[in-house]
Amino acid sequence: MAEDAVTGRCNCGAVSWRIAGSPLAVAACHCTNCRAQSGAAFSVNIVAKSREVTVDGPITTFEDKATASGQPVLRQFCGQCGSPIQSVITANPAVVAIKAGTADEPGNYAPTIHVWTQSKLPWVDIPDNVPSFARDVG
Ligand SMILES: [Zn+2]
Ligand SMILES: [Zn+2]
Q1: Per-residue pLDDT tens for 104-125?
Q2: Pairing of strands 25-29, 113-115
Q3: What CATH number has the domain bearing residue 95?
Q4: Which domain holds residue 60?
């Protein structure tokens, strides 16, 4: 029977994750922290309710204190292969941001919003029909 859960895993497979419900949004983040952590031009994140997310495996946490809010972001990655898995925003613990590139079906999660476009790389084009914000939402 089909289920709505979203699942994914790191590059080596030691860490897997599951979202029991529907994602709230897919946010492309162009902030400098996400860029450095992801190693890509920007980070694509599936935003989900924390209580609906389970992560299994050898997670390592980097406490990222250099944030705009001053509240740390816990950047969690596979301790074996280093794939970024999720970010826990301590200023807003009700939601987590899961790295969409680790989803089993990443093609399903086109960004629905772009944030921190003030630090976007000049060669990245954002489609006109997708909301974008210079900084964070709100
Ligand atoms: Zn791994
Ligand atoms: Zn970011």
Answers
A1: 999 999 999 999 999 999 999 9
A2: parallel
A3: 2.170.150.70
A4: 6-119
